[in-house]
Amino acid sequence: MNWFTKTFSSTVGRKIVMSVTGLFLCSFLVVHLIGNLQLFRNDGGAAFNLYSDFMAHNAIIRIMEIVLVLGFVFHIYDAVVLTRRNKAARPVDYANNHPEENSTWSSRNMGLLGTVILVFLIIHLWNFFVPARFGGLEGVVIEDVEYDNLYLKVVQSFQIWWYVLIYVISMVALAYHLIHGFQSAFQTLGLDHKKYTPFIQKFGVAFSVLVCLGFAAIPLYFFFFV
């Protein structure tokens, strides 16, 4: 186990963990967005509430939630460690080295983008996940069965302008974070090639923009049209 610990505590090892967990979290975003698209159905929130109930009580989903939390923890922890190591290895500030000539804004500000996303995640979980899992939601009857009305919580939350603003800004930050992180993950895992890298870059940008637009559209829709 000594070699395993040394490998994954090294800079290269931590970058691999960052890449794997990052790509795993990308898959979560897709699944989460598909579920949230139920909010657009014109059924008074029935489909979304049924989906939410399934997610809350399905044993496999609950196990995957633990895996997801571990993915977030490892991703965030390794990001902090790598950021500190990079700063220690680069005592001269970026401003003196003209980084804009050989790096993107998002690559130079992944720490800032990650912090914005983390703050949003805490707010988001407190506002939706905690009531959904631990009570505090009103009930709604669907086909003679009572369910937690998470849809009503969504409607109420997205009538608050500052929460909608925080949500949209966070999705912009997430898009920039993903655009750099997606390409970087493939490069770290050695999956880059002069023939395929341009496609990976374009796919990463398209994926990042479309997913984040999908999430941002939800609060904007409820704020302006519901």
TrEMBL record:
State the coiled-coil residue ranges: none
Q: Which residues form the signal peptide?
A: none
Please give the start and end residues of each transmembrane region. Answer: 12-34, 54-77, 110-129, 160-182, 203-224
Q: Which UniProt keywords apply?
A: Membrane, Transmembrane, Transmembrane helix
The UniProt entry, under InterPro entries, shows: Cytochrome_b-558, SQR/QFR_C/D
Taxonomic superkingdom:
Bacteria
Supply one GO CC term from the record.
membrane
Identification of the protein by name: Succinate dehydrogenase
From the broadest rank down, the organism's phylogenetic lineage runs: Bacteria, Pseudomonadati, Bacteroidota, Cytophagia, Cytophagales
